[in-house]
Description:
alpha/beta; Nucleotidyltransferase, domain 5; five-stranded mixed sheet; 6 helices; manganese; RNase_HII/HIII; RNase_HII/HIII_dom; hydrolase
Amino acid sequence: MLLKNYSNYTLECGTDEAGRGCLAGPVTAAAVILSDKFKNSLLNDSKQLSETKRIHLKPIIELEALTFGVSHVFQEEIDQINILNASILAMHQSINQLTPTPEFIIIDGNKFKPYKNIPFETIVKGDGKYLSIAAASILAKTYRDAYMETIHEEFPMYNWKQNKGYPTKEHREAIRKYGVTKYHRKSFRLLPEQLKLDI
Length: 199
């Protein structure tokens, strides 16, 4: 059973990201403030749910949340500022979209940078503990998956529709065969034996 709130504040937002470990595409974060009345027995950490369940929950969360925000930080920026900073930036940008502004922020994971002067707490495996983080994890994942399915049309040989940019064997084989695209993160080790990519 997921918990409603970590703090005693009414406007507590949960935030999470998707796509940190991918070789291609953006890292995507979402931030969600749920109302006190929000209940959903299906809602859990997005990694525990099937794609069908995540897609089913997305409009419910969007409709019933007090407010939510979603933000992509793309591969060029990931390469410039590194994946951890890009993940935190995506979270900050998604929190920026919230109205009303949260009074407290809970973050999945153990790394965050202060946002404005709002108190916050990082929670390891928070997406399996708190409703708002679980809701954020579902929005981040569904929005990112939808984006990867769109760019799949441009470069179908990498099968992003299926692997969403994660380092599957098939994705790595495609990089070996076709090289890298503008959507690949050049700062990542795209191939296990790679020392330097010829770009």
